[in-house]
User: Fold this.
Amino acid sequence: MDIEFETVDGITVATLFGELDSRTAPLVQDKLLALPRPQARVLLEMSGVNYISSAGLRALLMLYRRMANSDGRVALVGLTESIRDVMTVTGFLDFFAAYDTLAEGLAALR
Assistant:
């Protein structure tokens, strides 16, 4: 799992590549949990994520909770069909706003 960070109009864009599983989730969680600051906006670009396990979902949930506690916002973009299905069945899309394109996600967080 690789993560690349960039800032676009004050929004932190974290682009994830690879599998988000029990082996990689702790690293991802550490990097993502370092992001929240009061009223931060984070967009997770996940088109390069081809697998997510319960450990990966837990890492995303931890980020969501941390962001909510600091009046921040987090959104997802580029979910593959299989990742979207997992997140729908588990109820994760009740917490996260999901967009098809980076442009849509950035516009929503502006």
